[in-house]
Amino acid sequence: RSPAGIEWDSPDGKPVRLVFLIVTPEGQDEAQIRILGAIASAMSGPPTRQALLSAEDEAEMWAVLERALAAQAV
User: Fold this and answer.
1) Which of 2, 10, 11, 68 could make a disulfide contact with 42, Cβ separation 3.0–4.6 Å?
2) Beta carbons within 8 Å of 65's beta carbon, 6+ residues apart
3) Count of CB atoms within 10 A of residue 68's CB?
4) What's the gap between Cα 45 and its chain centre?
5) Which among 52, 55, 25, 54 has a CA at the least distance from the CA of 39?
6) Which of 54, 17, 47 is nearest to 68 (CA)?
């Protein structure tokens, strides 16, 4: 998370404030795609993004992300 943002050559020209690193075992390309899809769906709603950006610490960020990802599984 970068409150100020990071230049990332994004299509809209805005700096990126949330970056997700996805790590899976070698050869688990399908798992990476499923995880990326779940994160993309969870981040599509402004409330989730705002909650992550305003979270007090890592534990709160993780709780927000867990709730958002759990909602995608329904």
Assistant:
1) 68
2) 42, 52
3) 21
4) 11
5) 52
6) 47
Band (71; pLDDT cuts 50, 70, 90): confident
Axis-axis angle for helices 58-72, 46-54 (nearest 10): 160
Residues 36 and 24 sit within 8 Å (Cβ to Cβ): no
What is the tens place of the pLDDT at every residue in 18-59?
Answer: 999 999 999 988 999 999 999 999 998 899 999 999 999 999
Sole residue written with tokens 């007090």: 56
Q: What is the pLDDT of residue 74?
A: 56
**In whole angstroms, what is the distance from residue 9 CA to residue 52 CA?**
22
pLDDT for 6 equals 95
Task: Tell me how far apart the alpha carbons of residues 21 and 42 are, in angstroms, rounded to a whole number.
Answer: 15
Closest CA to 48 of 63, 65, 73: 65
